[in-house]
Amino acid sequence: MSSRNSILAALRENQPELSVLPSLAGPISVEADPVEKFKTLATAIGSKIFEVITFDQIKEVIMKQFPAPARIISSFEELAAIAETDIKVINPHLLEDTELAVLKAQLGVAENGSLWVPELNMMQRVLPFICQHLALVVYKKDIVSNMHEAYQVLGNSNTGFGAFIAGPSKTADIEQSLVLGAHGPRSMTVFIMS
Amino acid sequence: MKDHAELSEEFNKDEPRVDWHDETLWFIREKRDKAVHTIPEWEWLRETGSQIKNNVLSNLSVYLEQFELNAQANGVKVHWAANAAEHNDIVLSILKKHQVDRMVKSKSMLTEECHLNDFLTGNGIEVIDSDLGERIVQLANEAPSHIVLPCIHKKKEEIGDLFHEFLGTAAGESDPQVLTEAARQHLRETFMTRKVALTGVNFAVAETGEFVVCTNEGNADMGAHLSEVHIASMGIEKIIPERQHLGVFLRLLTRSATGQPITTYSSHFMKPREGQEMHIILVDNGRSRQLGRADFRNSLKCIRCGSCMNTCPVYRRSGGHSYHTAISGPIGAILAPNLDMKDYADLPFASTLCGSCSNVCPVKIDIHEQLYKWRQVLVKDGYVSPVKAISMKAMAFTFANPTVFEVAGKSGRWFMKNFPSMVSNKLNPWYKEREMPEPPKESFREWYSKNRKKP
């Protein structure tokens, strides 16, 4: 018998009587002002927040912090003047010298300051991880209260890959001292657009 | 093999270090409390998480088949491993097929359980662990001492010495910022040059065939997205039924583990990247057997947050290595005897049964009750030293017989008063590290019969 079949047979033999799945309708707290809560939580986990209305404002912030010749990559055509906007055919290893990536988040989650980025918005899967700094743009209307609401929005969409990203990469493995910039981005900027 | 008591004794030789270890872990427990108290529905979340896991255990075979079907439809290759050896062979065969002799790995306690690194090294494969804490213990040639904080037992000066020797940092450099930067540079080079990456799995969803990997450092993603082949190893109990259940578990996991609201990265792998090969290895290694033990099957609900370790008064003062198994602490002490009752018979006794572990467990595993039940099984089946077994039998007999109990108490008090050296000596394990208490003049029973109101 293959291991597959022997494992499944042992499980069928040993699993207890079927117990029902609980309902997820519970006393879940909903934020009165999800955007404010998001800002508080995102700041607490090390993200920098800018509330903006136009892409010109985003450009201004970026150009101040990442002056040329920093390599900037973005999925936004609006930023074509300061960023590469087409990297589809590039070998992912060639993104190693990316200073800043500016990508679109599909939604933000108030309770933990995280943002969902599906593969389609990443340009390349490795980009939001390999860049030295990451900026995500989220629309105000796309900020939800909690993870339950987030998964309701996502449904069962099969995007190949996707991630909740919450702040810059970090570690506290050495004596519990928090260090930002473990293997991924050293900083995270969130542009909240009206 | 040294047992928990002997290994703890070694750890306890350095008292300031024990105090530091104890306080560091308690600090994390306090961070967990703060995070938990911001969620009014926390207890509902725990109960819901627990019930979802009960459902999973009662329907595991069906969910695994469903997961396999959906993962295959997503273009992922699914393997089944009955035990550690088969898991390791599968990994090796994938590496051989691609003619690769080096691999980068992110955190996976399952591969620790399977001793994958030793196996691969023995077969000429170089493995580099990419989680900072795991890399540190790997350089020190040690095992992780905690499932979430692998090098929590190490001082920064010791890490500085290791990095000086292996990564060329300046002698005496122990600033965590500088050391982390050195590791970042060293591991970037590793990520850029390895064709095969292995990751663990935090959750796998039957309904969608996807799996979720949680890290703070981004190491799992760096490895996986730069590799040509991604291997994900998971214990079969990591399955959850539906994607929406991730909402419950991702809320519970990191708040319980470190007090953060969520890990920096919660990565959902559905399909391989274009041109990439993706494998999932479903590993049993005793889990189906544990599922058949009604008293212990709840241990399979564990989501590996480590909160039971951070809160445990024994773990905090004995260190993770004293458990001599991949998963240490209270949860490890109920998982390990399932793997080998003889080798791990000491572990269920490494507890005060205070119940703090069960109180913080995000999926409400009755950890301290299972520890107590394992003790009974292990004594009954003869896995405990004869001295301990006889003294436990004598204790049970004494407690069950009021007359014997009274005589034993009286003679105990008399001996302690008149011949203190008979109890306060090295032959009595209770005397180690302790002063024996002053014997009371009379027992409660004697006091009560003197003082109670006569009817």
UniProtKB/TrEMBL annotation, chain A:
It comes from the Bacteria. Residues 93-193 form the LUD domain. It comes from Arcticibacter svalbardensis MN12-7. InterPro entries: FTHF_cligase-like_sf, LUD_dom, NagB/RpiA_transferase-like. Gene3D superfamilies: NagB/RpiA/CoA transferase-like (3.40.50.10420). This is Putative L-lactate dehydrogenase. Coiled coil: none annotated.
Automatic annotation (TrEMBL), chain B:
Residues 292-322 form the 4Fe-4S ferredoxin-type domain. GO terms for molecular function: 4 iron, 4 sulfur cluster binding; metal ion binding. Residues 434-455 are annotated as: Disordered. SUPFAM superfamilies: alpha-helical ferredoxin, NagB/RpiA/CoA transferase-like. InterPro entries: 4Fe4S_Fe-S-bd (IPR017896), 4Fe4S_Fe_S_CS (IPR017900), FTHF_cligase-like_sf (IPR024185), Helical_ferredxn (IPR009051), LUD_dom (IPR003741), LutB/LldF (IPR004452), LutB_C (IPR024569), NagB/RpiA_transferase-like (IPR037171). Pfam families: Fer4_8, LUD_dom, LutB_C. Residues 434-449 have a biased composition (Basic and acidic residues). Keywords: 4Fe-4S, Electron transport, Iron, Iron-sulfur, Metal-binding, Repeat, Transport. Signal peptide: none annotated. One of its GO terms (biological process) is lactate metabolic process. This is Putative L-lactate dehydrogenase, Iron-sulfur cluster-binding subunit YkgF. It comes from Arcticibacter svalbardensis MN12-7.
